[in-house]
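Note to self: keep these together.
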Amino acid sequence: MNIEDVLNFTDSLVFAKKGIHLTDLQRTIIQAASSGLRHGYEEIAQANGYSPNYLKQDVGPKLWQLLSDVFGEKIKKNNFRTTVERQVSLLETPRPNLVEKSDKDSINHQEKICLVNQWQDWGDAPDVSIFYDRTEELAQLEQWIINAGCRIVGLVGMGGIGKTHLSAKLAEQIQEQFDYVIWRSLCNAPSPQQILDCWLQFIAKSQGTDLPEIANDKLSVLIDYLRKHRCLLILDDVETVLCDGDSTGFYKQSYEYYGEILKRLGECRHNSCLLLISREKPKEIALMQGETLPVRCLNLRGLSVSAGLKILQLKDCYCNSEAECRVLIEQYSGNPLALKMVAAEIRELFEGDVAEFLKYNTLVIEEIRPFLEQHLIRLSELGKTIFYWLAINRKPVSINELQSDIYPYISQQALIKSIKSLVQSSLIETKDNQFYLQQVLVEYVSSLLIERVCEEIETGELFFLKNYALLKTEAEKHIRKAQISFIVEPVIEKLLVVFQNKSNLLVHLKEIISKEQANLSEESGYVVGNIQNLLCQLL
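Structure:
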């Protein structure tokens, strides 16, 4: 037998009895043993980037123990070749009552499915027995993973958009294409070492292999496994280990090694796939991805109107016309979580009548506020400033227009960096080189602005009034009308409650404007213009 025959026979026997294939490193050691170990552990270690002690004390002894279990007799490096040849000769001896080839193929197929299903760990993956739409996205992701053989696939999008459910449905559909399926969430911020240990322990459990201590060695062993076994590794909630603010894609302190894991898994040849689920794109993905490259990324958008309708129906909501439901679904940009929240409100307060809910123009119900707040809390101060101005403008705006709006002055370089971070975090939308917020975010950020402005007018500590214009007089007529209806008038309504009547409020506003006009040496920003616009609406 030549060495290739020895390796193939051994690998087939190991797979038949253990459900695993030999790793590249194990094959290298067997090849050396079959050749009389002309190449010692030192040379193998040097050629493959391992320490000699690791091979002598760990990989080697475990390999011979594995082969002893498989062959049913004690295997050592000096009797391995003769044992293989003897086993082959026994198999070549004719035996009666052999199973027909078609039956054997059927049995092997069933055994393979059994083994595949045995090595799955779904962790915190959600139940997706009820799942709507996403046909195109599922097809795209499956094509990348199965047909194109991508090593890393990123799935990014705003919170609540359905990334986790889509990934779980995808994994269910393609699970039989993999020897191992492992789902893990980073929501509790496990260290990179813990995730490596988790993956390796689950895969190595079927092989009785101890793990190295050093992270780089663990990663090398993992890649070795990924070459010999078809593995689907799924990491959810990746944004948990990423920095807040404008450092989108960079890792929090002590989590930097996740970057090395992604880099190695994306660049090294292997037969497996890491599916990454995140609100933000790690910087390694941004650098390695490409339409024809083994690392690709899908930015997930909202549900279609038809899928949104099914969610509303599932929550016992109804529409007098499809147009009414379309308005509601588009107002929440097809976000499944937001739609479920608002559907519950419609069912409880309006007996499921969507049209009745829409009469009140109240997108930001209390249940949605904490969900939206999660997104804003991660923003830098400049990121929040951009959010407020996008809410004020109520339409897509260019970088130049944003820069002219923002007070005090901000450099274009800093502005572009922050906008890039917001786009990568799926928090602002882009169209024709202009930027805007989803409608529900516009309403939420506007409500925050209104609350802050009212507090400042009451206390006299002016920041928002100084830095933001409540009404842009140079804007188009329909935009000014919207700013009056959705910002200026709500501010006045809240202030009238605080000051009890229009006269008291007028006196207070005139005091503020007199004080600002008297302090000519200090820049007042938008304060004077804002107070004058409030007075115009009151008079």
